[in-house]
Structure formats: structure tokens, C-alpha cells
Amino acid sequence: MSLKDKIRDGRIAAQMTQGEASAKMGWGRTVWANYECGRRRPSPETLARMAAAVGANLLEWLADRE
């Protein structure tokens, strides 16, 4: 599974919209959407913050990362 899919699935598992997840990060909705669509790749620090925002396990997101 690609990283963008893990980001999307993590948000959905947390029952959050892109807007809600973005708000936790202090971003506009389109920033989160760009990560989910693969238009942007998060830095390790940003990825850790994103995982924490949706309550996901960062190590699972990093496993088999493409």
C-alpha cells in the first residue's frame, strides 16, 4: 500500500474529514488533500505529526513505504 493510501486510510479510520484533519495540523483542507493525492510528500516530521493528528501508528505508515 502506498503512503498516500495509508494517510487517507488513517484519516478515514479516525472518522475525520480532510478538513478536520487539516484543522488539527493548522492547515487548509487542500494541503491534506495534496498529501492524500500524492501531489506532495511529507517530511518525516510532518508525517509524524499527521499520524498523531489522526491517532495512527507512524511505524505502520512507514512499513513497506514506497
Q: What this model shows, in words?
A:
The chain is mainly α. The protein has one domain (about 5-60): 434 Repressor (Amino-terminal Domain). It has 5 helices and no strands. The chain has helices at about 5-15, 20-25, 30-35, 45-55, 60. α2 packs across α3. The radius of gyration is 10 Å and the shape is globular. The N and C termini lie close together (about 10 Å).
CATH superfamily: lambda repressor-like DNA-binding domains
The name of the CATH topology is 434 Repressor (Amino-terminal Domain)
* Largest β-sheet summary: none
Tell me the number of structural domains: 1
Number of helical segments with 4 or more residues: 5
N→C terminal distance: 8 Å
Characterize the overall form. globular
In CATH, the architecture is Orthogonal Bundle
How many beta-strand segments? 0
What are the segments in which pLDDT stays under 50 over at least 5 consecutive residues? none
Broad CATH class? Mainly Alpha
Radius of gyration: 10 Å
**Strand residues, percent:** under 5%
Kindly list the characteristics that best describe this protein.
434 Repressor (Amino-terminal Domain); mainly alpha; 66 residues
